[in-house]
């Protein structure tokens, strides 16, 4: 009961490289998530930046079926702007709970 789900809209401008890496996807039997955000890259410089672990829900208004291949082709097809909607699980209360659990 610790995680909170947030939908976050991320709007990137200026063209590739966008500065993030995807992992998972239907092909791998896992959710499609952001596995890396390049420091200093476009995705890191936003006020509302992407975070590792964000699950990609839609790209440029196209709702994804969870396939990494589909996501990559949509990203590659983005010319000047890229709009992502990601699902973020916020575990803030969980981490503080975790620390208490380990104090001896």
From TrEMBL:
Presence of keyword Glycosyltransferase: no
Annotated ranges, domain PDZ: 7-90
Keyword annotations from UniProtKB, A to Z: Actin-binding, Cytoplasm, Cytoskeleton, Developmental protein, Phosphoprotein
Lineage: superkingdom: Eukaryota
Molecular-function GO term, any one: actin filament binding
Subcellular location(s) of the protein: Cytoplasm, Cytoskeleton
Major place of residence: cytoplasm
PROSITE patterns in UniProt: PDZ
One of the protein's GO biological processes: actin filament organization
One Pfam family here: PDZ
Keyword Cytoplasm carried by entry: yes
Any one GO CC term of the record: apical plasma membrane
Residue runs in coiled coils: none
Family the entry assigns: Belongs to the shroom family.
Protein name: PDZ domain-containing protein
Lineage: Eukaryota, Metazoa, Chordata, Craniata, Vertebrata
